[in-house]
Amino acid sequence: MAALSVGILIGAAILTCLFMAWVLGANSNSPPFAPAIGANAISTMQAAFVIGLLAAAGALLQGGSISETIGADLINGVTITPLAATAGLLTAAGFMAIGIYTRYPIPAAFATTGAMVGVGLSLGGDPAMATYRRLGTFWLLVPIMSGGLAYVTATILRRDDVPETIGVPLLAGLVGAIVANVRLGVIPDPAADQGTLAGFVARLIGGGPTLAAGIDLGTVLVTIGFGLLAFFWVRKRVLVSVESGIRSFLLVLGGIVAFSSGGSQVGLATGPLENLFRVQLGLPRLLLLAIGATGILAGAWMGAPRLLQATSREYAQLGVRRSIAALVPGFVIAQLAIALGIPISLNNIILSGVIGGGLAGGSASVSRRKIGITITFWLLTLASSVAVGYGLYRLFATVLGG
Question: What stretches pass through the bilayer (predicted)?
Fold first, then answer.
């Protein structure tokens, strides 16, 4: 009987993880293509289909670090039980479902972090203050970095003395260089769990002498090579047709950010089950990430179009240039957060970039009311999810025991 009860709890936790991942796919993985839809570079349904595939791939290849943070670093002194994980995931998913219904994107990182802190405290754990300070600092810097970089980039792209045949390809070169150094689970690395394209190719050609911070010359040269390839690819297309070339780059950017969003968001669904899968059941993390990726794929295909329309049309009326300016910092910040193991909200990053790019064209192009309501939703989400997570676990424990 006891074994049956444990099995039911485990099954409920896995189903809740799938539901949470579905909501993430519908909610938090939508913004990367919102600027492209707003610029009429892709249709809403096409974007939802592509987002699902790319976000699921990113979840499998990059989702481990965020999952570990959510599962082990938010509360000291206790481990998350299947019942606690179910309560936390239901709380976070409920908040984001409200966001989908109201068309105000709820930040998944805020909802999940608050919910897991709440259930952890309800279990009798102690607050992990050092982790909270690290997360809070990064979250506060995100809108400043994303919005500021988008504003500066959009302003430069609008300048008459910066030819678009140079400015846009330079941005593409920067993105290409960063892509070469993105860590992926399918690339072997003798010193880390995940390797980079630049490091892998550099080892194939011999590496070379080590420079500053332990980076070898070969990796630097390969990174430059990737940047140059991206530069000349976009420049060639822009020289043929400026508008067509810029739209092509915008679509590629949306795809890269969608991939990054899967890597940064899946851990919000799988993190609460880290202890269950890896310690209690002895199962590999890849299996847990695959469950999350499946949910994200389904959510993006089934639920993303509604939020895509809201974020693309209501926050700012962007052209392709300001859309590019919104996505470039989004990609950079998302990959930085993955490298540091910090759960983030893609809504926060992309919408800050959308707003920053919109302000470059004048404040009239940005809905200030929408921005104000969104920020209020974010703050309420973080505070109230702690209380709801705490109370929901207490209710479950009282009714079900454990």
Answer: 6-25, 37-60, 80-101, 108-125, 137-154, 211-234, 246-266, 286-304, 324-343, 349-366, 373-393
Please report, for residues 55, 142, 221, 232, 321, the alpha-carbon distance to residue 171 in angstroms, rounded to integers and kept in the order given: 23, 20, 18, 11, 11
Crossing angle (nearest 10°) for helices 108-122 and 346-359? 150
| DSSP code of residue 195 | E
Tokens of residue 104, six digits: 């105000």
Q: What are the tens digits of pLDDT across the range 199-246? A: 888 888 877 777 666 677 888 899 999 999 999 999 999 998 888 888
CA 263 vs CA 175, 208, 232, 244, 271: distances in Å: 17, 31, 28, 29, 12
Tens of pLDDT, residue by residue over 19-55, are 888 888 877 666 677 767 766 777 778 888 888 899 8
Q: Distance between terminal CA atoms of the chain?
A: 15
Cβ contact 211:201 at 8 Å: no
Rounded Cα distance between 397 and 402, Å, is 5
Whether the CB-CB separation of 30 and 302 falls below 8 Å is answered with: no
pLDDT tens-digit readout, 108-127: 888 899 999 999 999 999 99
Spatial distance between the Cα atoms of 132 and 139, rounded to a whole number of angstroms: 10
CA torsion angle 160 242 346 316 (round to 10): 60
Q: Please name the residue that has the structure tokens 């209710």.
A: 395
> Which CA distances in Å does 330 have to 68, 90, 218, 348?
22, 28, 28, 9
- What's the angle, vertex CA 143, arms to CA 140 and CA 149, rounded to 5? 130
Question: Could you tell me which residue, 373 or 222, shows the higher pLDDT?
Answer: 222
Helix (H) or strand (E) holding 169: helix 164-179
Are 362 and 285 contacting, i.e. CB atoms less than 8 angstroms apart? no
In three-state secondary structure terms, 379 is helix
One-letter amino acid at 248 equals S
Place of tokens 């509360």: 75
What are the C-alpha distances in Å from 12 to residues 5, 6, 61, 159, 268?
11, 10, 26, 56, 17
